[in-house]
Specification:
mainly alpha; Neurolysin, domain 3; 4 domains; five-stranded mixed sheet
Length: 687
């Protein structure tokens, strides 16, 4: 009888190191424990390194198959583990998960550098790249080869000596800073609570908001009404609460996250991150990080982005100034004696919108029961693309709030697993996002279908009411579902080109185009019924909703542009920035500002998109994609919002193709021409 090897024992007990016998090989969340992650990552790092070393040591002439494709599929088991870890770190984290993420991130950066800075490996890829015209590669093969080659170049493979060593140090440090930034924002969001015990302080708040706050307080073992900085609670309070001092308190708490004098302060992290990105870009021969990033974007360079932002600013500013003056006059007329402040904006804007259009968001919420909205979104995917969705309770989930669906194509074939996870909780980051636990691929003829997650922070049900969504939450659902469609309907060979693996300023097209259906009566009539009476949403209310669609479009545009300008400023520095971060951002966004600055508030300190996400020098992409989505949806408006031919073209040319070709070529294949900014200006009422 032979002794059991300790490595074999780890494999037997660690779910990451055995094949998954779950439906569609979904993660066996019920078996995954915290202590499994680090041993699994250590083991699969060794495995991934061995796979890379096998490519390097292969004495055969480097070919597309034995070098580029082999590199593309290497580390698959490592990605399986890290995919679960980092999805949990966003959607269901805790101190232990965060500590694990911090511990493994340097190891992952070290491995990434081992690959990208490996001279022998780069030499093999380069030799294949130099022979590319003689290799008879198809379009997707060529795109993968170019992406791999440029990936090496952009990751420091041409560096030598101290420069190469420094590059590795920078990437490792940036991975740590990114995690710490996100942890600090989440901790600051969770740490603030506004407990109201005097019912008079609830004046103005709808009964549904009060009930949710009472339920939150009860869950925390407190008497009264509890409001937090999580999306549904914060937004509702700022919009409806009559108590101005409490609105100010909430606003200051929200806008000082990561900017307080405590151990969660992000100021030094911001400076270090911006300066390290600058240093990395300059090591690679670029003036700044924005120039480095935009070399692989539709926009191509910082000048074009800045011109684009300024063009929209010129169109938005006069409208925003009129809107601002209107709210100031309205607030004065309705009793505001002091200067209009930022914590007054949502409150008086909501009242002005009701006065203008008779449209109160509370009027439409009863028609947007989450389950009905979800059915409507699923039905939209069925009408456009023939997809069907089936709950599968045998698929393990990472939290009881999440539900797993099998998604089937129009011919009945299995397409994807989709997890939907809707409600806020302390272990979940704010906002909404789509991610994949496994991308689609067909390498060497082996078809692997994707596993997709959609995670949101919607209004929770209460003891007496189901989850009733705001109109903004409905559009958020559509947005993230558009990303999910991009992932689920991917039809590529290589995972690195699949689904949302596209240029950052193109990735928002599939998501933002879906938002357009939110104001289409023809679609709303299919699902929007009153949760109590079953009555269809009245035509008059839909008209008010549509009429109010462009309410304060100028102000909203300026606000979004301010984010893009702040992002570009941080990533366009050409020398290290060691000054005051508030002064820096105020200078960057001055052109868009309508209010005086608020002392103690900071945009950058909680700007997770650019300091903890993947949007550095890319936040402009939301506005860029608005041009694309408005232009694209004009085809649906022309041909019919459920037109199968238009949807099929969008699927075949955009959703299925991922990053297999330059985005503009894909867009023109769908639209027949380059996008025009005119549909966006018209849709937004800015023209």
């Amino acid at each position: 009888m032979t002794a059991c090897n300790s490595n074999d024992k780890i494999k037997e007990t660690n779910p990451f190191l055995v094949e998954w016998d779950t439906p569609h090989q979904t993660p066996p969340f019920q078996n995954i424990k915290h202590e499994h992650f680090i041993p699994a990552i250590d083991a699969t790092l060794i495995e991934a390194k061995a796979e890379v070393d096998a490519i390097i040591s292969n004495e055969a002439k480097p070919t597309f198959q034995n070098t580029v494709v082999a590199l593309e599929v290497s580390g698959e088991r490592l990605e399986r583990v890290t995919g679960v870890l980092f999805n949990l770190n966003s959607a269901e984290t805790n101190d232990t998960i965060q500590a694990i993420a911090r511990e493994v991130s340097p190891k992952l950066s070290e491995f990434s550098n081992y690959v990208s800075l490996n001279e022998k490996l780069f030499g093999k890829v380069k030799s294949v790249y130099e022979e590319r015209e003689q290799l008879n590669l198809n379009q997707e093969d060529m795109q993968l080869l170019e992406k791999k080659y440029l990936g090496f170049v952009r990751s420091g493979s041409n560096l030598t000596g101290e420069a190469k060593k420094r590059y590795a140090e920078i990437t490792t440090e940036l991975s740590k800073l990114s995690l710490q930034f996100g942890e600090n924002v989440l901790a600051e969001t969770n740490s603030f609570q506004l407990l109201i015990t005097d019912k008079n302080d609830l004046a103005g708040l709808p009964e549904s908001e009060c009930e949710a706050a009472a339920q939150m307080a009860k869950a925390k073992g407190k008497a009264g009404w509890l409001f937090t900085l999580q999306g549904p609670s914060y937004v509702g309070f700022m919009k409806y609460a009559d108590n101005r001092k409490l609105r100010e308190q909430m606003y200051r708490a929200y806008t000082s996250r990561g900017f307080q004098k405590n151990d969660k302060n992000n100021e030094e992290i911001i400076r270090k991150t911006a300066n390290l990105k600058l240093e990395k870009a300059q090591l690679l021969g670029f003036k700044n990080h924005a120039e480095y990033v935009l070399a692989e974007r539709m926009a191509e360079n910082p000048q074009r982005v800045n011109d684009f932002l300024n063009q929209l600013h010129a169109a938005s500013r006069p409208v925003a100034e009129r809107e601002f003056a209107e709210v100031v006059a309205f607030a004065k007329k309705h009793g505001l004696q002091d200067q209009l402040e930022r914590w007054d904006w949502s409150y008086y804007s909501e009242k002005l919108k009701i006065a203008h259009y008779g449209f109160d968001e509370q009027q439409v919420k009863p028609y947007f029961q989450l389950e009905k909205v979800q059915a409507g979104v699923f039905d939209l995917a069925t009408r456009l693309y023939g997809l069907t969705f089936k709950v599968n309770k045998t698929i393990p989930v990472y939290h009881s709030d999440a539900t797993a669906y099998e998604v089937f194509d129009q011919d009945g074939s299995f397409l994807s697993v989709l997890y939907l996870d809707f409600f806020p909780r302390e272990g979940k980051s704010g906002g909404a996002w789509m991610n994949d636990l496994r991308p689609e691929s067909k390498v060497n003829g082996k078809e692997i279908r994707p596993i997709i997650t959609v995670v949101c922070n919607f209004t929770k049900p209460t003891d007496t009411k189901p989850s009733l969504l705001t109109f903004n939450e409905v559009t958020t659902f559509l947005h993230e579902f558009g990303h999910a469609l991009h992932g689920m309907m991917a039809n590529t060979v290589y995972p690195g080109l699949s689904g949302t693996n596209v240029y950052r300023d193109f990735v928002e097209l599939p998501s933002q185009v879906m938002e357009n259906w939110a104001t289409q009566k023809e679609w709303l009539d299919l699902f929007a019924v009153h949760y109590q009476t079953g009555e269809k949403i009245p035509a008059e209310l839909v008209k008010k909703l549509i009429d109010a669609e462009n309410f304060q479009a100028g102000y909203a545009s300026e606000r979004q542009l301010s984010f893009g300008m702040n992002d570009m400023a941080w990533h366009s520095i050409t020398k290290p920035m060691n000054g005051d971060i508030v002064e820096f951002e105020q200078k960057a966004i001055a052109a868009t500002e309508l209010f005086e600055p608020v002392a103690g508030s900071c945009l950058s300190s909680a700007f997770s998109h650019i300091f903890s996400g993947g949007y550095a020098a890319g936040y402009y992409g939301y506005k860029w994609a608005e041009v694309l989505d408005a232009d694209a949806f004009s085809m649906f408006k022309k041909n019919g919002i459920f037109d199968k031919a238009t949807a099929t073209s969008f699927r075949k040319n955009i959703l299925e193709r991922g990053g297999t070709e330059h985005p503009m070529k894909l867009y023109k294949a769908f639209r027949g021409q380059e996008p025009s900014i005119e549909p966006l200006l018209e849709r937004s009422g800015l023209k």
